[in-house]
User: Fold this.
Amino acid sequence: MAVEGKTIDALSQFELSPVLGILGDAVSFSQSNLFMVIAVALTWYLMKATADRGALVPGRLQALGEGAYEFIQGMVRDQVDIMPIRARLLAPGAKIGDILAEFA
Assistant:
């Protein structure tokens, strides 16, 4: 909705502005970095809380932690795709130098 020469800038909501004042400016620490740090801290706390009280029959918190671990592990495994490399390394006559040269 333009009102008398004013236009809406749809991309302004995605601007990265520094947080932490002058220190954030000096080290280029934006709100995007802040949210990444918060996500890592919450994930670390969840993993620590579930690992401290490990039980043979998992409770709700441990089941949540194990599910989160499997989800993250699955994402990493899908991105890295290490199974074809492992299969070729186990093949008879496989040379690691030749296999790794393909990925260089």
